[in-house]
């Protein structure tokens, strides 16, 4: 294989995402696509060097020799521009994906490389791998295409022939200022031909993203940054079903060399409900409503209970497999495909879904008879089971406990059902029992809320309690916040917990938990402290505005990437700060729906009924 194809692992923060809302790809700063699942987010990959530097496939475009790199997304789009500066000239690479169409053949991914100054010698290395296969398949190279391992790469404007070197398709050529070459990827067996010029395809992609971006209802000083996070959430949305994946990757580790490497390319009910809320609050109602339909269909199918996560078309079988012959990012084994957490009982999901139904109706939407029946069924299920132990939202591999976060979210389920359908004796009784238990038996002897009843440990998940409108004891909650800062905080970073979770090794700090702390401090009226933390967290974004799941204490990204949880939390905290500036503590009270309907100088309330 060529020297490009065997280069070492890149830092997680060095990647940017491409998406067509069906599948995705990750592009490194050096111009190499090291991860791509082009048909569906949760497919086996086509390029996988991210998880094995030697065995995985890649698609690299870069100048020969030394170069410096600058990157950005074109305004209001997910089109990535990478500029390489060399001693002899400047090379610009545009990468983007396109959604499939029935009326004409459409490549899933296009790469356009152009010399914009001087002349530059370019090297292209192309080597797909069919899923997690143990060996590369043969490539067939002709004048304008490369075929093999499930893909057809159609070239345009290539001045020199593509050659096979050590099993890779390699092209080396010189571009003068104003010259460009394009590569377009099609699924093998499709009508693989370019019926539009690559620049026409890029204009189409630009128009589609820019049109979507006009829905934003926030126009404050952080608009561009928040729009980037909203575009990332959009990029993680599976258009055919409306499902939102937790992240674009599998098996990026929470500890380098450790075993905490999970597959996040699925739809967690909790993550996606929070994404729904943030998308609604930011004005992206089309995606929010598509996801609403996805959740309604799941609730109808399950008849009361819900799994914590599903595949992106609603499949429930997420059997976990280990890819034993892949070494993992920087030696972090195992590489996993599938996630056995789907079999856990996580009762907080009922509160997330009922809160979603309530928000939908408050913003002008309506619940059809099927949705109403399912909402009632979920509330009944919550009333019957809230007092039972569950696995907790963090999915520890330990026996179940009476987690306070689960109790609080079951309170949300019953509270929202009462708001939607009126008081029912069972719902009211069990809702009030939850409050009594959390604020009595659930309070530690030292006056704070612990992770679960009988525990001495704190859990950052409890920071969300007032955000969902739960009637916390304010004194107890403030003690909880201060204890979380003392025990889980590392500067502006926050661990989700530090006690044993049944797994060996450790993990990084959790980005969403650090933003939850910002929200909690604001709710307590500690504005200066909250703003200081928020500004420090803003600086965690990589050069193209993306967040990972976790951050090491040294500041490096960990975990699957980019992470929906982190981006929705960034948007939420920014809008909370905006709301606090508008109306102080009073403006933060109540439910997500209450706050969504409160307008400020920078944000108007979205209206589902207007669509």
Short description, anyone?
This protein is α+β, with helices and mostly antiparallel strands and 611 residues long.
Number of helical segments? 13
Q: From the alpha-carbon coordinates, what is the Rg to the nearest angstrom?
A: 25 Å
CATH architecture of the largest domain: Alpha/alpha barrel
- Share of helical residues: 25-40%
Largest sheet: 14 strands, antiparallel
Topology, element by element:
Blueprint: E1 15-19, E2 24-28, E3 32-37, E4 58-63, E5 68-73, E6 80-85, E7 89-97, E8 109-127, E9 140-141, E10 145-148, E11 151-156, E12 163-165, E13 168-176, E14 180-187, H1 198-213, H2 223-235, E15 237-238, E16 243-244, E17 267-268, H3 269-282, H4 285-302, E18 309-310, E19 321-322, E20 336-337, H5 348-362, H6 369-385, H7 404-421, H8 425-438, H9 474-488, E21 489-490, E22 493-494, E23 509-510, H10 511-523, H11 527-538, E24 550-551, E25 557-558, H12 564-583, H13 592-596
Antiparallel strand pairs: 1-2, 2-3, 3-4, 4-8, 5-6, 6-7, 7-8, 8-13, 8-14, 9-10, 10-11, 11-14, 12-13, 15-16, 17-18, 19-20, 21-22, 23-24, 24-25
Helix pairs in contact: 2-12, 3-4, 3-5, 3-12, 4-6, 5-6, 5-7, 6-7, 6-8, 7-8, 10-11, 10-12, 11-12
